[in-house]
Structures are given as structure tokens and as C-alpha cells.
């Protein structure tokens, strides 16, 4: 906001964004910038607040604090937190898709894309009055909107099914249709909420192509939430990592990939790997904490079955286990804390957990 | 395990055994249900005492009828229907359908001969056999005519299905002419034909078309936008009272007040819309229900303006665009202008064409609106409101336009109703009316104009037709009044239709635009909307 160059460069600027639901802080003091013409990825573990950020940007939530600035290509600037919900796509040109697909399932694919061009067609139809009497201006605009719809149906490889109901499409095609529908609003910023969720590798690759095509041919900037790292690492130019509503890393995919805080917090690591990471950074307390954690005799461990031990043991243990996890919940914070406190090399050597990995269980396995 | 065993024993049992068993259960259930309803009847005697009449004979008849019906269905009906689905092994063809077996050429010829004979010798036969059996002969004649009509419909079913809209509109336009022609032939005079046509044009034609128009108006709100409105009759009342008050107080013409009443109702639609916009589903339904009741209570209690429960009478008739009137005393009375015989049927026929025109206007506007962005936005709103907002659609104004447009057509219908009746009172605008209109929309298939028109014809025409079943008095005794059973039949018809076609007569949805070909969208994909 301070310099004009920066203003043109950044399409979306999130400053000190906080969102609180009662006592729960879903997002705490989040600031990041999405640059024009780039694909910015927002990643983080489940419940990190990614979708909440999206809902704040697209006006479905009013943020508790903070400022969300959108700079359009024509130089106009919108404060998204002040715009009503429906004006964000209409005026600020921000389009979005949803994590659980929200298509108009009883309408055909073509109709879905025509509904997306509502505001343009509304003007062309003279707010219904002229259209009702069949003025030629509306017919022309209507033909143009059909062409745009056909264009995006071709891009999404769905033109053969244009006259089928959207609810009849397979899952992957519904994802592509939702993106095509969002693009039909003519957005400058496209927000995609887990576009690759539930897609097979082939569909995922097709999605990557579609997104790269959008980036190169329309000049639309993309902000996406994604769990599929193949998508994130391949196509994004900039990655923002959230954990528990706070930003823990921000940079290009390579730097984020190697950031120990991110590794610890997110990138599909098991507890044993976290332990390795922590050991590398020199963390004793956490390793001890991991030690007190559930062991093979009680937890699902080796047998992977809760029926392996007495029920009381399992139940009793699951309580303690939850406490342990919530204490050390933010792994990135642990990494931080350890990295900040200086350690002697000798201590680090003693802390090396040889053979400990057998007792610590992978988190993913328990979920 | 036990379940499988019992199933095997079921299949081992012969159909007759199974049918006997099921007939017994059906009879037992009927006995339990009807022992108090039919077996006992309470009444009053001369000294105002409660008397209990026992009707065990009637109860036994009903129970036996139920059991026999169940037996016949299970023993013969079900195997027959199952056989209809099995193709012949040798030829690979399905057995002849029930329709082609029922509508055969010999039967058709017999029906033609019977109908012609009964028509020709109607009067002489009546004198010959006496008054009571003559009623049965008339019934027989009606059956023959219905069979002939059904035959014609059956043989031309493909053509009718393909051109349903055109044929329907043609039939509606020709209806009064046909009625007058047929009745004139029957009575051997045009005057008699006109007089006889009053009932058919007014009670059937106009009455059904008013409900068609109301249901099409409500269809915009419920069927397209998915906003459940239980107080639609309020807009009907507003239109009726707007015309009644302005016409009686200021003497304004119907042609000015028709759009004015529509605008008035639309304005109130918006006023109602504003506070209820945040509500969804059941909550919206309850608030609209309350709105309907508020309007009715205001009409009852605001005596200075609305004349309370007594209503407003002496509402002027519609004129033929000011050129001709339908008041006998006027110098430009239609019969004087055109030099024809005086008859009250002209006004009814004129009203019929007026409401037909209004209905067609409603249909035209609805079809046009569906293809405009606002109509698509209504349907999108029904499908998913959140997605609508994410696409930049202002859901507030979209909902308000749906409310206003639906209310406007309600207002038109209301002012027509006032002009037709010449009298309005709050009793015409009770909640039951809203419920009937909504039932028509749901039965017809939400969003489908043709389905709704058919549903209105069945529901309103059906209840009117019950008044015509006088011959039933010969069976059930002179106290029997079939129209008292119309709500029972209404409910039964709804249950049957909802079992047979859960999404209404026309469940599929016609897309508003297409790239290659127009294909109807199956009802399994469309949503009902949540307010």
C-alpha cells in the first residue's frame, strides 16, 4: 500500500487479519501478499484456518480485525472486509470455488456457466425490462455469454456434456466445472479451495494444466488451498504456510519445502520424523514428551487394534495422550522454541534418540 | 437367518395362500380403523340427546370389500403385473400392454353404437323404463362417451404427447364455443345452449383458470426461487380488495385497476420480502403463513374501509374495453350493439377469455423470465444460495423480485376474481386457499407450467365434478352429498400422486439454454430449495 510499484505488484494484501469465533482464534494476526499473475498457495494441516482465510477474503465471514486489500488491474483498490458478500465477485472481481463442491446440480453445465455471467447479462437485459420485450441488445449479449461459456467448457474438457445436468458429472469433472464457472465471472483473483481433493493422479495433472493455462492466458492470479503437494510444488510461485491460524512460513516452494518449521508442522511427516528434525535442531524436552507418549503396549501401536489391550487401559490412555498432543500441538512452535535456545553440542549428542523411534508412533496411523 | 427362512416359506406358499393371508390382515386393519368411524354414528334426536347408531352391516361391507380387494390384487393383480414385465422366450417380445388390450376396435365400435343409441332414444327410453333406471342409463351413456374419449386419446397418445402445449391452448380457446355448440344441439336451441353453458364455462372453465393463474404465480416463488410461501392468498386478497375498493369508491375502470392491483400486490410482496429475507425453509414458511393471516384479519377488523366480514358488494362488471358493457340496462349493452338475443352467458364467456388471456400472459412472462438472467438466478438460488453469492448475484434483490413477480400475478388474479364475483369478503381468502394453491404447485411438479395446469384441472375440476355425481344418490340414498367428500378425495388423490410420482406430474426440468440439444433434466438432480 505504501509504494505504487508494490501496489501494482500485489493483487491481494492481507494485513493483520484475525478471525475469532467466540473464544476460538481461527486466524491470528495473519499477513501475506499475493502477487499479480502468480499462483499463491495457502497450505497447512487440517484445521489450520485456511478455509477461514478464504471465507474472509470472499466476504462469507467478516474478519474480527485486519485489512484485506485488493488492487485491480485498472488501479482501483477495494477493501474486501468492507464490501458486502456479493459485491466482492461483482466489483472486486474475486471468484472462488468451494471445498465441498457447490454446483447448481439441477441445471445443465451451460446454465451453470450462464448463471456465473449474471451481472453482465443483467445489465444487457436492461435489468430484465428490455430483455422481457426481446430487445436485440440482450440477444447479442446472450450469444456472447454462450460463446464464453463454450470457451470455458472447452478449456475444462466438458463441452460434450454441456447439456447434461451438473449433478450427473463425475467428481473430477465437477471440480473442473466449478473452476470454469468461477472463470466465467471474469475474475482477476481466483480463489480455489482444495481443487485437487478427491482427484486421481491423471485428473490432478489435467487440473495443473488447466490452472497453468488460466495463469498464462487470462492474467488471472490464483490463490489456492491445497493438500496435494504435487499440485502445490509444481504450479505455485509462492507458498504461505499456516498452522493453528498463524503463518509459519512464506516464500517460494523450494524455501518452504526445506523450512524445518514447515516440515515439522505439516508436510506429511510422522512423529518419528518430527523427532529427527527436532533432534537436529537440538530439542530435548520435546523428545522426552514424545517418550511419555503412548507406547506400543497401550496404544494402537504394532497391532493397530484397540482390542489388543484392556479397554480401560486404552480409554484411560487416550485421555493422557490427548493432553500430550495438545501440549506439543504446534510443532512449528516447538521447532522455534528449540532453535532460539542455544544448546551445547554434547547435549545434543546425548539427546540423540537411538532406538526411540520404535516407541513413538506415527500420527497418521492413529488418525 | 430367520428372515431368509421366512422369505423362502413365502415363496413356497402359492399366490392364493398368500393372498388369503394378506386379505385377512387387510380386513383386520380395516376393521380396526373403521370400527369407530363407520361402525358407530353419533347423532341427535328430537330432544337434543346424543344417540348412538350402530351400523355393523355397513362396517362389515367395508371390511369385506377391503379384504376382497386385497385378495384380488395379490392373487391376480400382482402376478399379472409381474407377467407384463417378462418377455416371451420364443419371440423376445413383451406381452401386449394393458392399454392395447383394453382399447380394442370391437369394444370401440360397441361403445360408439351404445352411445349413439342412448343419445338418440334418450327421451323415449326414459319414458319406457321409468325415472329411476333412466338415471342408470344416463350413467351408462356417460361411461360410453368417456370410453370413446379415452380410446381416442390412447390411439393418438404419441401425437398428443408431442404437441401437448399447442393442443392444450387450442382446446382451451375452443372450450366455450364447443360447450355452447354441444348444449345447443342437445337443447335444440342456441338460447338454451347459452343458458346451459353458464355452469360449464363459469364453474369449470373460469374457476379452474383462476387457480391455474394463481398456481403459476406461486410457481415463480416456490417452484423457481425455492421460497416456500404459505401466505400466497394474501396477495390474491390484496388484488381483490384493491379492485373492489377503488372500483366502488372511485368508479375506476377494470382496465386501469388490473395493473394497479398487480402493482399493489407486488409492492406488498416486496414489503413482506424485506423482513423475511434472512429466514430460510420452515421459518420462512411460518412467517409467510402469518402474513397471510394478518392480511385476512386486517380485512375483517378494519371495518371503516373494508366493511369487515360483510365484505364489499356491488363491484362493477368488466366492460369490453369500454366499447360494450354487460349490464342489460346500459345503452351499449352487448346484445343491443350486436343485435343478438339477451343472455347472461356472454359475460361469462367474455370473462373466460379474459382469464385465459391473463393465464397465457402469466405463462409467457414466466417462460421469458426463465430464459433471462433473473430467472436463471432464481433457479440457481433454489439450487444453492451460497454459490450464488460467490458468483456475485445479489440474493436480496433476486429474492425480492421473485416475491414481487409472484405477488403481482396473485394481484391480477385477485382483481379478476373480484370482478367476476361482484362481491368480496375475507372468507374467500382463508389459509385453505393458500394450501390448495401450494398443493397444486407441488402436485403439478415444481417449476413445470404444464404439470401445474394439469394439476389445477384435476384438483379444482375434480372437486367441481363431484357436484355432478347425482346418480350416486341412487346408490347411497338421497342423503348422500358427494361434494362433502371432496376434501377426503383431495387428500387421497394427493397421497396417490405422491406415491406414484413423488416430484409431481412433470418432475423433470426443461433447461433454459442449450448448446447442442435440449434434454430435460431429471428430477433426481434438482433441489426443492430451502428458502
List the helices and strands and how they pair.
The complex is a heterodimer of chains A (367) and B (531).
Chain A: H1 4-9, E1 10-21, E2 24-35, E3 39-43, H2 50-57, E4 65-71, E5 77-79, H3 87-90, E6 94-96, H4 109-116, H5 118-124, H6 129-132, H7 136-155, H8 171-183, E7 189-193, H9 201-218, E8 221-225, H10 229-235, E9 238-243, E10 246-251, H11 253-258, H12 260-265, H13 271-281, H14 285-292, H15 311-327, H16 331-340, H17 345-351, H18 363-366
Parallel strand pairs in A: 3-8, 3-9, 6-7, 7-8
Antiparallel strand pairs in A: 1-2, 1-4, 4-5, 9-10
Helix pairs in contact in A: 4-7, 4-8, 7-8, 13-16
Chain B: H1 2-12, H2 15-37, E1 40-44, E2 50-54, H3 56-84, H4 98-102, H5 105-120, H6 122-129, H7 131-155, H8 157-162, H9 164-187, H10 190-224, H11 233-250, H12 254-276, H13 282-301, H14 303-306, E3 312-313, H15 334-338, H16 345-371, H17 373-383, H18 385-390, H19 395-421, E4 423-424, H20 431-444, H21 449-465, H22 472-476, H23 486-500
Antiparallel strand pairs in B: 1-2, 3-4
Question: How would you sum up this structure, described in words?
Answer:
The complex is a heterodimer of chains A (367) and B (531). Chain A is an alpha/beta fold. Chain A has three domains: 1-93 and 186-253, P-loop containing nucleotide triphosphate hydrolases (Rossmann fold, 3-Layer(aba) Sandwich); 106-184, no CATH class; 263-366, no CATH class. In chain A, 45% of the residues lie in helices and 17% in strands. Chain A is built from 18 helices and ten strands. Chain A has a six-stranded mixed β-sheet, sandwiched between helices. The longest helix of chain A is centred in the middle third of the chain and has 20 residues, at 136-155. By secondary structure, chain B is an all-alpha fold. Chain B has three domains: 2-91, no CATH class; 99-161; 163-468, ABC transporter involved in vitamin B12 uptake, BtuC (Orthogonal Bundle). Chain B starts with a helix and ends in a 31-residue tail after the last helix. The model of chain B is unreliable at 1-9 (pLDDT under 50).
Amino acid at each position: 500500500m505504501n509504494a505504487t510499484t508494490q501496489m501494482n505488484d500485489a493483487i491481494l494484501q492481507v494485513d493483520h487479519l484475525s478471525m475469532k469465533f467466540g473464544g476460538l482464534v481461527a486466524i491470528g494476526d495473519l499477513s501475506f501478499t499475493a502477487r499479480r499473475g502468480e499462483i499463491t498457495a495457502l497450505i497447512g494441516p487440517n484445521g489450520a484456518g485456511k478455509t477461514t482465510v478464504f471465507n474472509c477474503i470472499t466476504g462469507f465471514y467478516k474478519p474480527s480485525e485486519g485489512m484485506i486489500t485488493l488492487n485491480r488491474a485498472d488501479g482501483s483498490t477495494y477493501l474486501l472486509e468492507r464490501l458486502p458478500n456479493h459485491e466482492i465477485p461483482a466489483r472486486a472481481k474475486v471468484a472462488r470455488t468451494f471445498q465441498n463442491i457447490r454446483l447448481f446440480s439441477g441445471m445443465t453445465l451451460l446454465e451453470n456457466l450462464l448463471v456465473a455471467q449474471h451481472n453482465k447479462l443483467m445489465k444487457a437485459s436492461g435489468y430484465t425490462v428490455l430483455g422481457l420485450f426481446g430487445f436485440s441488445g440482450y440477444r447479442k449479449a446472450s450469444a456472447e455469454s454462450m460463446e464464453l461459456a463454450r470457451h470455458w467448457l472447452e478449456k475444462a474438457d466438458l463441452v460434450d456434456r454441456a447439456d447434461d445436468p451438473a449433478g450427473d458429472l463425475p467428481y473430477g469433472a465437477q471440480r473442473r466445472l466449478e473452476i470454469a464457472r468461477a472463470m466465467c465471472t471474469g475474475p482477476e483473483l481466483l480463489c480455489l479451495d482444495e481443487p485437487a481433493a478427491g482427484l486421481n493422479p491423471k485428473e490432478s495433472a489435467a487440473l495443473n494444466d488447466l490452472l497453468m493455462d488460466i495463469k498464462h492466458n487470462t492474467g488471472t492470479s490464483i490463490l489456492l488451498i491445497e493438500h496435494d503437494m504435487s499440485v502445490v510444488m509444481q504450479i505455485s510461485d509462492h507458498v504461505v504456510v499456516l498452522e493453528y491460524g498463524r503463518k509459519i512460513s512464506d516464500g517460494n516452494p523450494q524455501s518452504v519445502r526445506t523450512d524445518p518449521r514447515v516440515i515439522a508442522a505439516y508436510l506429511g511427516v510422522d512423529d518419528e520424523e518430527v523427532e529427527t528434525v527436532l533432534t537436529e535442531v537440538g530439542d530435548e524436552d520435546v523428545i522426552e514428551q514424545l517418550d511419555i507418549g503412548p507406547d506400543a503396549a497401550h496404544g494402537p501401536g504394532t497391532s493397530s487394534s484397540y482390542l489388543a489391550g484392556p479397554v480401560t487401559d486404552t480409554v484411560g490412555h487416550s485421555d493422557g495422550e490427548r493432553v500430550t498432543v495438545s501440549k506439543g500441538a504446534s510443532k512449528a512452535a516447538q521447532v522455534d522454541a528449540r532453535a532460539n535456545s542455544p544448546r551445547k553440542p554434547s547435549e545434543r549428542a546425548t539427546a540423540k534418540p537411538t532406538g526411540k523411534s520404535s516407541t513413538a508412533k506415527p500420527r497418521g496411523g492413529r488418525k | 437367518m430367520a428372515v431368509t427362512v421366512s422369505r423362502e416359506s413365502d415363496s413356497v406358499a402359492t399366490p392364493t395362500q398368500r393372498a388369503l393371508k394378506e386379505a385377512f390382515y387387510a380386513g383386520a386393519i380395516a376393521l380396526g380403523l373403521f370400527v369407530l368411524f363407520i361402525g358407530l354414528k353419533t347423532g341427535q334426536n328430537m330432544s337434543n340427546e346424543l344417540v348412538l347408531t350402530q351400523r355393523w352391516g355397513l362396517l362389515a361391507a367395508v371390511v369385506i370389500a377391503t379384504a376382497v380387494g386385497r385378495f384380488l390384487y395379490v392373487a391376480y393383480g400382482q402376478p399379472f403385473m409381474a407377467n407384463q414385465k417378462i418377455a416371451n422366450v420364443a419371440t423376445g417380445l413383451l406381452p401386449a400392454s394393458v392399454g392395447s388390450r383394453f382399447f380394442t376396435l370391437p369394444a370401440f365400435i360397441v361403445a360408439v353404437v351404445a352411445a349413439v343409441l342412448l343419445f338418440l332414444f334418450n327421451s323415449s327410453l326414459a319414458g319406457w323404463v321409468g325415472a329411476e333406471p333412466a338415471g342408470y342409463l344416463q350413467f351408462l351413456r356417460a361411461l360410453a362417451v368417456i370410453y370413446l374419449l379415452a380410446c381416442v386419446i390412447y390411439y393418438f397418445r404419441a401425437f398428443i404427447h408431442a404437441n401437448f402445449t399447442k393442443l392444450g391452448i387450442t382446446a382451451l380457446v375452443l372450450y366455450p364455443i364447443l360447450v355452447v355448440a354441444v348444449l345447443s344441439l342437445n337443447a335444440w336451441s342456441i338460447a338454451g345452449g347459452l343458458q346451459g353453458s353458464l355452469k360449464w364455462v363459469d364453474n369449470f372453465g373460469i374457476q379452474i383458470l383462476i387457480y391455474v393463474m394463481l398456481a403459476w404465480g406461486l410457481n415463480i416463488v416456490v417452484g423457481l426461487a425455492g421460497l416456500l410461501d404459505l401466505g400466497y392468498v394474501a396477495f390474491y386478497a390484496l388484488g381483490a380488495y384493491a379492485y373492489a375498493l377503488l372500483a366502488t369508491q372511485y368508479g375506476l375502470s377494470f382496465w386501469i385497476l388490473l395493473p394497479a392491483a398487480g402493482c399493489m400486490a407486488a409492492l406488498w410482496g416486496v414489503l413482506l420480502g424485506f423482513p423475511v429475507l434472512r429466514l430460510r425453509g420452515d421459518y420462512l414458511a411460518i412467517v409467510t403463513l402469518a402474513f397471510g393471516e394478518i392480511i385476512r384479519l386486517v380485512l375483517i377488523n378494519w371495518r371503516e374501509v373494508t366493511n369487515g366480514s360483510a365484505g364489499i358488494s356491488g363491484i362493477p362488471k368488466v366492460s369490453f374495453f369500454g366499447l360494450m358493457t354487460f349490464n342489460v340496462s346500459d345503452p351499449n349493452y352487448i346484445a343491443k350493439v350486436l343485435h343478438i338475443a339477451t343472455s347472461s352467458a356472454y359475460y361469462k364467456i367474455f370473462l373466460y377469455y379474459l382469464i385465459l388471456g391473463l393465464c397465457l400472459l402469466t405463462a409467457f412472462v414466466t417462460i421469458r423470465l426463465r430464459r433471462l438472467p433473473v430467472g436463471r438466478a432464481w433457479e440457481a438460488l433454489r439450487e444453492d444460495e451460497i454459490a450464488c453469492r460467490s458468483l456475485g448475484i445479489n440474493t436480496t434483490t433476486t429474492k425480492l423480485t421473485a416475491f414481487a413477480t409472484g405477488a403481482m400475478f396473485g394481484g391480477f388474479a385477485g382483481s379478476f376474481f373480484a370482478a367476476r364475483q361482484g362481491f368480496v369478503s375475507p372468507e374467500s381468502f382463508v389459509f385453505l386457499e393458500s394450501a390448495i394453491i401450494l398443493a397444486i404447485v407441488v402436485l403439478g411438479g415444481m417449476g413445470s407450467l404444464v404439470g401445474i395446469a394439469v394439476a389445477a384441472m384435476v384438483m379444482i375440476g375434480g372437486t367441481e365434478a363431484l357436484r355432478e355425481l347425482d346418480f350416486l344418490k341412487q346408490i347411497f340414498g338421497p342423503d348422500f352429498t358427494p361434494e362433502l367428500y371432496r376434501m377426503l378425495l383431495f387428500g387421497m388423490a394427493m397421497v396417490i400422486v405422491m406415491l406414484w410420482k413423488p416430484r409431481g406430474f412433470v418432475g423433470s426440468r426443461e433447461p433454459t439454454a442449450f448448446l447442442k440439444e435440449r434434454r430435460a433434466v431429471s428430477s433426481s438432480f434438482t433441489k426443492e430449495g430451502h428458502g
